[in-house]
Amino acid sequence: MKEREKKRKRIAFFGHFNSTNFGNESTLQAILYHLRCYQPDAEVTCISTGPEATVATHQIEAIPISERFIKSWLPRNPLLRVARGVFIGIPSELYRWITGLIRLWHTDMLIIPGTGLLTDAYGLLEWGPYNIFKWSLMAKVCRCKLLFISVGAGPIYGALGRFFVKLALSLANFRSYRENSTMQYLKGIGFRAGNDRVYPDLVFSLPEAVIPHQDTKKSRRSVVGLGVMGDAGKYSVSRPSNEIYRAYLENLVRVVRWLLAHENDVRLLIGDLDDMRAKQEFRALLGERLSVCDQGHIIDEPVFSVEGLLSQIAATDIVVATRFHNVLLALLCNKPVISISFHHKCESLMSAMGLSAYCLDINDLKADKLIEKFCDLETNAGKLKPLIREKVREFRKALDEQYKFIFNHM
Fold first, then answer.
1. d(CA 235, CA 56)
2. How far apart are CA 267 and CA 227, in angstroms?
3. What is the number of other CB atoms lying within 10 angstroms of the CB of residue 279?
4. Lower CB density within 10 Å: C or N end of the chain?
């Protein structure tokens, strides 16, 4: 028994995991499933933004990325701000470093799995570049192998963000990216990717058992899944994000009116619980533009889990989505999909799937163009489904090879 305990690997995962973003949650779900296939006795810890939710959802130990010791307080007086940093901020951060080193001591592997983590679009702290660097450096101090697996990158706006990302990546024992465009992006900010590898997004490796079977019942009206994204436009620098966001919603309203006029039902989808507000705004716009009868053909049901989202997607015929993982989960369910692209990852995914023709830029979204693409997709759906199925199978196989290498040979 003691020998077995000695052989048990201790593995830690790092990421923005808190049960609210279904793309991130499906990423963690996928890699945990495969870890348990290869290393069923491994001791697992997750360093996450929502440790309580991670424990409840995945039944693993979890700790916060950055523990808070006192209530957030930012005084207006400049001198008080300096005093706060000296007497509260610096000691607190030193304590975080010490507790982090203790946590990683005797850990075999720190894995940063998937998701678009390499960005400062949401700031340097929390799950941003500074803490990625901090935990990466602590891993190396503790002689813990550091792996970045199928990660995405960009945008990284600030010099400090670029510095921390490049330094963290340079410490890694293994690096792979979920698309070629991420590798090119990192090269563009001065990181030498060298012989790094490109593998598909980890969500393509979700166990087939969790993918719902397609409903064989066919009603007279087709159901179009429409994914609304709350922070659409956040990654754009060409125009203020709010301008992009308002135009985005207005064009989607026009598309919904057209879909209903052509005897389709519309099922509203989200990919993050933060999208609830955007969905409410969208429903308000629809309420102003649609008749009571038409509103009866809008399907709007709550969703609180990856499994719930997959069930909703399975109940559609075609999907039009903005969030990256809404598009990806639709493909996993073998649904023809149109991607409203807000980031290079969306274009890369659709290109890899052979669906570039059905990828539209959010910065130049026009209802007429989207309707034209929808009509084309609907016409070709029967031909596209076998191609989507084959691509998904190919991506699963590639990810199986990556898991085998990581968990058997690292």
1. 32
2. 8
3. 18
4. N
pLDDT at 244 over 80: yes
CB 121 within 8 Å of CB 235: yes
Structure confidence at residue 240 (pLDDT): 43
The Cα 297–Cα 290 span in angstroms is 10
Integer Cα distance of 115 and 163 in angstroms: 20
Cβ of 237: how many Cβ atoms within 10 Å? Answer: 9
pTM of the complete model: 0.91
**Model pLDDT, residue 377:** 97
Tokens of 370: 């989207």
Residue-by-residue DSSP string for 108-125: -EEEEESSS-B--TT-SS
Strands of the sheet containing 43-48, edge to edge, are: 61-64, 43-48, 10-15, 109-113, 145-151, 174-177, 197-198
pLDDT at 83: 59
pLDDT digits (tens, 9 = 90+) for 129-142: 999 999 999 999 99
Q: Number of helices and strands (H, E) in the chain? A: 15, 13
Lowest average pLDDT, out of 26-35, 74-83, 315-324, 358-367, goes to 74-83
Q: Under DSSP, is residue 12 helix (H, G, I), strand (E, B) or coil?
A: strand
Question: Residue 399 and residue 406: Cα distance in Å, rounded?
Answer: 10
- State how far the Cα of 18 lies from the Cα of 120, in Å rounded to an integer: 19
- Strands 337-341 and 109-113, how do they pair? unpaired
User: What are the DSSP calls for 346-387, one per residue?
Assistant: HHHHHHHTT-GGGEEEGGG--HHHHHHHHHHHHHHHHHHHHH
**What six digits make up the tokens of 308?**
């719930």
What DSSP line would sit under 47-108, residue for residue? EES-HHHHHHHH-SEEEESS---S-----SSHHHHHHHIIIIIHHHHHHHHHHHHHHHTT--
Q: Tell me the torsion sign for CA atoms 19, 20, 25, 26.
A: positive
Single out the residue of 156, 183, 178 nearest to residue 112, CA to CA: 178
80: pLDDT confidence band, cut at 50, 70 and 90? low
